[in-house]
């Protein structure tokens, strides 16, 4: 029995189970039992819902038909709704072939653009590597040092904000490798930031790092949301 974890699996299940042949066709056992050339439009709802609910969803969810059943292009056309998901579907008039999803070949296909508005917005906010390099170099001159541990999520979050472990090498000390040095500096949690030997207690943002060191923040720099304002970390 299929365990449905979320409603977005419903379309996939219908496609996998119902669309087993090339071209997306499958013969319905219920349709084969009818034994006549054409079924009436009044029979479509009972035929389809019995097949989906009993054979596919097996009582875990319930499908229903939305709106009117229509005749189009020699087929019966209707919408199936399961857990709020609507699927435009078709059935041949002999009741034998069920199309759990239909495509109009005369219409322009909708192509999913991988460069969504969200990803475009994200790319627009990406800091140029050369600007990050200049910022890190300035932090080094200001004696800004991060003492971190690579197993700590807070360390990873801070390092990723600053461009990654390779980028922060000039200002980063890995305490799992430099235990004695970190102990000498009084590091008790990760990440710990020292500026001229004094522990930095502010928010971990480009703006605050800039204010604390005098280094100009990179153009377009945006610190990720959810930063701990007290500089929390791993013990």
Explain this structure to me?
By secondary structure, this protein is of the alpha+beta class. The protein folds into 2 domains: 9-99, no CATH class; 128-213, Glutaredoxin (3-Layer(aba) Sandwich), CATH 3.40.30.10. 34% of the residues lie in helices and 18% in strands. It contains 9 helices and 8 strands. The protein has helices at 9-18, 29-34, 41-56, 117-124, 129-141, 153-161, 165-168, 179-184, 206-213; strands at residues 63-72, 75-82, 85-92, 98-99, 144-148, 172-174, 192-195, 198-199. The strands form 2 sheets. The protein has a 4-stranded antiparallel sheet. It has a 4-stranded mixed sheet with strand order 6-5-7-8. A hairpin with a 5-residue loop joins strand 3 and strand 4. It is elongated and about 85 Å long. The two termini are 45 Å apart. The model is unreliable at 1-8, 15-35, 114-125 and 225-231 (pLDDT under 50).
């Amino acid at each position: 029995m299929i365990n449905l974890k979320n409603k977005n699996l419903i379309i996939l299940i219908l496609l996998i189970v119902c669309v087993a042949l090339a071209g997306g066709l499958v013969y319905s056992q219920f349709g084969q039992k009818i034994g006549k050339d054409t079924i009436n439009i009044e029979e479509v709802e009972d035929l389809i819902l019995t097949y989906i609910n009993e054979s596919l969803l097996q009582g875990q969810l319930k499908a229903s038909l939305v709106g009117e059943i229509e005749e189009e292009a020699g087929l019966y056309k209707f919408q199936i709704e399961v857990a709020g998901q609507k699927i435009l579907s078709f059935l041949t008039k002999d009741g034998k072939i069920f199309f759990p999803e239909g495509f109009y070949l005369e219409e322009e296909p909708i192509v999913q653009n991988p460069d969504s508005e969200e990803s475009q917005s994200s790319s627009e906010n990406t800091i140029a590597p050369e600007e990050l390099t200049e910022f890190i170099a300035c932090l080094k001159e200001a004696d800004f040092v991060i003492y971190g541990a690579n197993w700590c999520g807070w360390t990873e979050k801070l390092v990723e904000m600053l461009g990654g472990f390779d980028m922060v090498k000039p200002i980063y000390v890995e305490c799992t490798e430099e235990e004695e040095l970190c102990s000498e500096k009084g590091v008790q949690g990760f990440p710990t930031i020292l500026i001229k030997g004094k522990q930095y207690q502010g928010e971990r943002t480009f703006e605050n790092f800039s204010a604390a060191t005098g280094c100009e923040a990179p153009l377009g720099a945006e610190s990720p949301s959810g930063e701990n304002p007290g500089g929390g970390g791993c013990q």
